[in-house]
Design a protein that fits this description.
GO terms for molecular function: hydrolase activity, acting on ester bonds. It contains 11 helices and 6 strands. By secondary structure, it is of the alpha/beta class.
């Protein structure tokens, strides 16, 4: 962080990468509030974070000196000070496509916006309208979603494949992403960071389902992610020059993730094709449970389960992102 710059709050939207436990509080099978999730978090507490310890939400909040842990907005025990300094509205397994959230019983992105609108009203009560305006103007807003639209929807079920080829489905998702960001801006967000899709073809579950005999990275998944990311980057860049301009930054996580997976030893990893939980090839959410064996040395693994990275992997990617994008974001 540059000197003399403060960020009052961190607020997150999206899927399981940024979900701090919202999925604990409504009916869905997509949860992580049981062991071995959280095995390295606050004395092995499974809070609903889809990893072994901290998520990118926590790590970024800590790095920009907001707080160490970001709570889930739906947590009924949330404290007023935590509300003021930021929350996460993210829901594991949601997507830009409303069908994805229906398939997975997750909170749709537009519903997350409605929750944010309710949150603003709560801030008015807690700190008044003037300070609420300061929080909205200067806080950091994170958005990470889209992976489940491909992995859990397009490449798994036939509905969208019949309606769209990959380029047209990407265009459909980009229109949803653009609408979300514009609506978020209308509600007052002024420092918005939208993450690209990761290298979804290299997730262990994608390797298992579509990587062939040797479980290689699924090339069709990665091609879709690259096409989507190029379109998303262009759309977000154009939003910055609209009238009025939308203050948003595109953050590429595809490239650093793929670099680590191609050169794991350079980053202190040995195993990148499967997760630490169970066989690591298919286990995620309810399939990664107390009966699953876990790896003996988690620091060797890039992935925690078959979908989500470990805290160590997240730390490396977060540090990379902050070095590249922090000045651009804070200048918004």
């Amino acid at each position: 962080m540059p000197e003399n710059v403060t960020v009052p709050a961190l607020i997150a939207f999206g899927d399981s990468i940024l979900d701090q436990g919202n999925n604990n509080y409504f009916p869905t099978f997509i949860r992580a509030n049981f062991p071995p999730y959280g095995m390295n978090f606050l004395g092995a507490r499974a809070t609903g974070r889809f990893t072994n310890a901290k998520t990118p939400t926590d790590l970024i909040a800590e790095k920009i000196k907001v707080k160490e842990y970001v709570p889930a907005y739906l947590n009924p025990f949330i404290q007023d000070q935590d509300m003021i300094t930021g929350v996460s509205f993210a829901s594991g397994a949601t997507g830009l496509d409303p069908l994805t959230s229906r398939i997975n019983s997750a909170i749709p992105m537009m519903d997350q916006l409605q929750m944010f609108s309710n949150y603003i009203r709560k801030l008015h009560v807690l700190v008044g309208k003037v300070e609420t305006g300061n929080i909205l103007n200067n806080s950091l807003f994170l958005v990470a979603t889209g992976s489940d639209d491909f992995v859990d929807n397009y490449f798994t079920y036939p509905i969208r494949k019949v309606q769209y080829d990959i380029p047209s489905y990407c265009n459909y998702l980009i229109s949803k992403a653009s609408t979300f960001v514009k609506e978020l801006h209308k509600l007052g967000a002024r420092r918005v960071v939208v993450f690209s899709l990761p290298a979804i073809g290299c997730m262990p579950t994608s390797r298992t389902l579509s990587g062939g005999k040797y479980r290689s990275c699924a090339s069709i998944y990665n091609k879709a992610a690259k096409f989507f990311n190029k379109k998303l980057s262009s759309e977000l860049y154009s939003l910055r020059f609209r009238n009025p301009p939308v203050k948003v930054v595109f953050a590429d996580i595809y490239t650093p993730m793929l670099e680590i997976i191609k050169n794991p030893q350079s980053y202190g990893f040995e195993i990148v094709d499967r997760g630490c939980c169970g066989t690591g090839e298919v286990e995620v959410s309810w399939m990664c449970n107390a009966l699953s064996r876990t790896c003996s040395n988690i620091s060797n693994y890039f992935f925690w389960d078959s979908f989500h990275p470990t805290e160590k992997a997240y730390k490396i990617i977060v540090d990379h992102l902050l070095q590249i994008y922090v000045n651009d974001v804070l200048s918004l």
